[in-house]
Amino acid sequence: MSPILVGIKRVIDFSVRVRVKPDGSGVVTDGVKMSINPFDEIALEEALRIKERNLAGEVIAISIGPAEAQQQLRTALAMGADRALLVQVERPVEPLTAAQVFLKLAQKHQPQLVILGKQAIDDDNGQTGQMLAALWERPQATYASKLELEGGRARVTREVDAGLETIEIDLPGVVTTDLRLNEPRYIKLPDIMKAKKKPLDVTTLAELGVTLPAQGIRSLKFEPPPVRSRGVMVKDAAELVAALQQRGVI
Amino acid sequence: MNKALIVAEHFQGKLNASTAKCLSCVQGIGDVEIDIAVLAADAAAVAAEAAALGGVQRVLTLERPENAEALAAVQAPQIAALARGYTHLFGPSTTFGKDLMPRIAALLGVGQISDVMAVQSAYRFHRPVYASNAIVTVEAPAGQIVVATVRTASFQPAAGAGQAAIERAQVEAMLPTHTRFVSRSAANADRPDLQSAARVVSGGRALASAENFKLLYQLADALGAAVGASRAAVDAGYAANELQVGQTGKIIAPELYVALGISGAIQHLTGIKDARTIVAVNKDSEAPIFEVADIGLVGDLFQIVPELERLIRARG
């Protein structure tokens, strides 16, 4: 049975209060807790559930990031991934480059599905899945909240602004996860021990034949968001309605 | 001279307000000629609406039966073909545009700028990262098309009226058949959608039961507002998960956000910090929500909420 590829990005943990560096070059990451991007955890959980229903072969966890991203890949292995691959890069890559990496790996492993998070909670781009689907010339089902596989096809319920939309795609294809697709499992201690014996390979962009774009989108300066200031206090409901009217919101 | 193409968002024969907001973002580029693309099975009504927006040069329609539903895989090759010769290609950062635009960017072989919240120049933009906990200035390379999505909450609809020419466009594009629309269901047909609503009424743990959440629904209906909830209220089982507002739920930017019995945990504040006006009602005067509220009221929800509903309904 064909495998499932899952993207695992190392990001600042969602519970950390992110702070911009005083020189505006980025955000503070020293000594900050790092985790798997929450949407990627959901992607991995979905892949594992498909495998547990005997509908897929190996689940391969793939990260593009620094050497330290091996920690997140070990966590993915402990959750249940069969093998892991780190594409080690010195600096973060743009989504288009990430999509090119996944394209190379899709061509190599011939998966039925590539499941990625709908976005990473660091750069909030939300592009890699759609870009991969375009380059791979395959379907995309973004913002998935339900995924059913049946005879070479997937029926995917998507969370869209208007409500829920269901589409059918031929496999192989790309699915990106929304929060409500599933609840990722907790890792048990024996799983952590087992994960240490699972294969975790490291490769590079050059080895995969992916080149960085000659000119990409550059981040020039990071700034903290404008701070909201404390407003007025009112005494009762009538004053509140009056204040709303005064502001022209009702 | 810049030449920009905006991808229109529409639904059931009506132009979505996100298109006029994209237009005002693109107008900020300066020295720009703006076209709008409408993909549909029958584009007439939507094209007429788009042509009436202020400052549009041409409305280009791509009419074919395959465009009856907005499927990114089907639309992307058509728009990629249509985009040749433009310096900028913009779409809304709604689920429609977020699904579609990166697919087009990849077909064009360029990166994308997501969630433009301010325009500094034709190639420099501001966008939020880390759930709006940082704002980054980004620069797209000159000499290639700039593909971007527009954070609609950051822009007012373009002002003025216009009379743009409507032209039928022709493109050569192979359309895939691997993606098929099945069905759509409105989450809450009788109430505005939480993600895009202009007004939102949200409840927290202090509502103390699912039953009490009905109070909040009545106030929301009086305001024509969508309903949201804090994570604490969702975890306690008072509200459905899809109503969750915050970093782990929906990040929203309504005109009016009314927080009832919500203390204001960081992860909740992240989800509402771009709301234009925040109202907080809470019995604890020390609650952190008051730090960010534009209008605060300390008191008992169970008295205040029905009173508010009555006063708002009385206004007509």
Task: Name the features.
heterodimer, A: 250 residues, alpha/beta, Rossmann fold, nine-stranded mixed sheet, two-stranded antiparallel ribbon, 7 helices, 28% helix, 29% strand, globular, B: 316 residues, 2 domains, seven-stranded parallel sheet, five-stranded parallel sheet, 28% strand, elongated
What does this 3D model show about the protein?
Chain A contains seven helices and 13 strands. Chain A is globular, with a radius of gyration of 21 Å. Chain A has one domain: 3-Layer(aba) Sandwich (Rossmann fold), CATH 3.40.50.620. Chain A starts with a strand and ends with a helix. In chain A, a hairpin with a 2-residue loop joins strand 8 and strand 9. In chain A, 46% of the residues are buried. In chain A, helix 2 crosses helix 5 and helix 3 crosses helix 4. With 250 residues, chain A is of the alpha/beta class. Chain B has two domains: 167 residues, Rossmann fold (3-Layer(aba) Sandwich), CATH 3.40.50.620; 116 residues, Rossmann fold, CATH 3.40.50.1220. Chain B is an alpha/beta fold and 316 residues long. Chain B contains nine helices and 18 strands. In chain B, helix 3 packs across helix 4 and helix 5 runs parallel beside helix 9. Chain B is elongated, with a radius of gyration of 21 Å.
* Uncertain ranges of chain B: none
Q: What share of the residues of chain A lie within helices?
A: 25-40%
Parts with pLDDT < 50 across at least 5 consecutive residues of chain A: none
Using only C-alpha atoms, the radius of gyration of chain B works out to 21 Å
Radius of gyration of chain A: 21 Å
Output the helix-strand order of chain A: EEEHEHEHEHEEEEHEHEEH
Per the CATH scheme, the topology name of chain A is: Rossmann fold
Oligomer: heterodimer
- Principal-axes geometry of chain B comes out as elongated
